[in-house]
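Practice record 12: protein with adenosine-5'-[phenylalaninyl-phosphate].
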Amino acid sequence: MKQTLNILQNTVIGDIERCKSLSDLSDIRVSVLGKNGQLTAILKNVGQLPPSERPIIGQLANSVKKSISEMLDKKIRLINIEEWNASLKEEVTDVTLPDKGFLMGHRHPISQTITRISESFRRLGFSVESGPEIETDYYNFEALNIPQDHPARDMHDTFYLKSGDLLRTHTSPVQIHVMKHQKPPLKIIVPGVVYRCDADVSHSPVFHQIEGLYVNDSVSMAELKGTLEFFLHDLFGDTLAVRLRPSYFPFTEPSVEVDLECPFCKSGCRVCKKTRWIEVMGAGMVHRNVFRSVGYDPDLVTGFAFGLGIDRIAMLLFNIPDIRLMYENDNRFLKQF
Ligand code: FA5
């Protein structure tokens, strides 16, 4: 048995040394050390030997097994290094080739528009505030001089929650949050998401507004007009005319709608619905009742507020024909910006 083991060890070690590939090494491992391998068979039969031989043969078989295993592992490492060196010699890297390019993501047109609008207002000294998207009836309506049963509530197709709260229908409630916690002078803009039960090419159930609020001791309508003209000219170029039309919002008095001369035509087109003007926002002087609801004395402070639809501005800036395109997450659309 001793001789058989010695012969097996010498033969196998010779085979391993001559081996040129990992798959041949794997074959050797299976035929010698595998479940039905030669050495495994010997080890299995050690128990059948006379008791005096068992420990000697057992020890010898285990040491043969150990040296074959070590030899196999050593040879595997050697072949791996040889293959690696050979591939390095064969594969030439041309460092002068141009790279494959880096796939950059795109900022959504709405995010780009918010940044541009915010930068414009920052230059006029406005700071950016935010507020909750889930609102109480009080902040969204009541404190803004829209009591229960006021017909203006119908203009906001509101999503109500089971709790009785609602998804804010405009960014104007943030006026109340900010005024309740800060004293004038105040000069803020509030970009944010708002919700209305409304959907067609120019109406989305989820859209974005920017609220603006300036409160001080003697703010005038002329300042409102100057501020909005500066902003719209900054965004669309100063060749386009801006006009204010009388309107109605319960939280401003007087109230106006602000129109921008159509950037796409001089005589009327599909975008301006042949009117040459595009309505871009609502605005006005803050109503005395709104000041009362936040604890300001309406005889001591005045202010203006405005609210514009960011999505509509983005449609104008980027020439996007349908508001819904901005919410469909279609990469072919988003890649263009
Ligand atoms: C308001 O929401 C007022 N809170 C704005 C305001 C603020 C007026 C402060 C005075 C003082 P209005 O409902 O008109 O107003 O909406 C303002 C703008 O949001 C609109 O001019 C329009 O550009 C945009 N808008 C309204 N509904 C939608 C909609 N469903 N999808 C996309 N944009 C919309």
